[in-house]
Design brief:
The complex is a heterodimer of chains A (109) and B (115). With 109 residues, chain A is mainly β. Chain A contains no helices and 11 strands. In chain A, the strands form 2 sheets. In chain A, strands 2, 4, 5, 9, 10 and 11 form a 6-stranded mixed β-sheet that branches. A 5-stranded antiparallel β-sheet of chain A has the order 1-3-8-7-6, with no helix packed on it. Chain B is globular, with a radius of gyration of 13 Å. The termini of chain B are far apart. Classes of the chains: A mainly beta (109), B mainly beta (115). The interface between A and B is medium-sized, with 22 and 23 residues.
């Protein structure tokens, strides 16, 4: 079966750095997405990786290793508004998105 | 402004009373999808549509119906709702659904409570 694993919850301090990991086992691979979802709101796109390596976008970076079935989202200079759930999703060989359960990130002052 | 709209945003109903949640997009996207989101389970796909008159089951289609008569609209129908369909529902769209890097755009969500 297809599976995506992420930690359920993480806590970090304002101004610090946090890394949210995602491991996946899917039927084929056509890219990995990270979405941000504030409580009660719709998910919004953060990043897309299809090749190995690091993609940097401002305070957020996303890394992919296809051989290890592994990705992480790195958030720097954490702000209180970064408190949200972060969803990892993989597009499989049929171009369907397989979603992880999400990681709830709590930022403390 | 490019957007995905859902109605209603909140709904309380009773078991067995048919309901429809509408989804509309103005981006001329071919691909549309319905998800439900429950605590600890993440987003689970109910149905999706690759284009007008083309719909397919997702991972959890039981108890739901959809139709795609026009490109912009993709309603979700619960013929006889049950309490286990209490959930947060999202409609999502993307350009074609056949490209790896396409992002999905989500509607604001519909919170449904079935008593």
């Amino acid at each position: 079966g297809q599976n995506i694993d992420q930690p359920t919850e993480m806590t970090a301090t304002e101004g610090a750095i946090v890394q949210i990991n995602c491991t996946y086992q899917t039927s084929g691979f056509n890219g990995l997405f990270w979405y941000q979802q504030h409580a009660g709101e719709a998910p919004t796109f953060l990043s897309y990786n299809v090749l190995d390596g690091l993609e940097e976008k401002g305070r957020f970076s996303s890394f992919l290793s296809r051989s290890k079935g592994y990705s992480y989202l790195l958030l720097k200079e954490l702000q209180m508004k970064d408190s949200a759930s972060y969803l990892c999703a993989v597009r499989d060989s049929n171009y369907q998105l397989i979603w992880g359960a999400g990681t709830k990130l709590i930022i403390k002052p | 402004e490019a957007q995905v709209t859902q109605n209603p945003r909140y709904l309380i109903t009773v078991t067995g009373k048919k309901l429809t949640v509408t989804c509309s997009q103005n981006m001329n996207h071919e691909y549309m999808s319905w998800y439900r989101q429950d605590p600890g389970l993440g987003l689970r796909q109910i149905y999706y549509s690759m284009n007008v008159e083309v719909t397919d089951k997702g991972d959890v289609p039981e108890g739901y119906k959809v139709s795609r008569k026009e490109k912009r609209n993709f309603p979700l129908i619960l013929e006889s709702p049950s309490p286990n369909q209490t959930s947060l529902y999202f409609c999502a769209t993307s350009l074609t659904g056949t490209s790896g890097e396409e992002t999905q755009y989500f509607g604001p969500g519909t919170r449904l409570l079935v008593l």
